[in-house]
Write a structure and sequence with these properties.
Elements lengths: L1 E5 L13 H6 L8 E5 L5 H7 L5 E5 L15
Amino acid sequence: KVLALANPATAMPQAELPFTYREVDVLPRYYDQVRAHFGADAKEAVVKTEAGQADILHIATHGEFKPTTPADSRL
């Protein structure tokens, strides 16, 4: 079971990731059960409520890793 989120809604249009739709759209080729959320439906609340039923969590979005302060890293 895969829970996939792509191109979450943002107030910054320049931050949109249009190719993440394709990234998530190919997942059913490899996995039988894929639940996908795009745009405004790809939000933190979905992860909190649905991740417990998934074996794989695929989040196609921007990320920032801060090696000196990992707790400040974010998606």
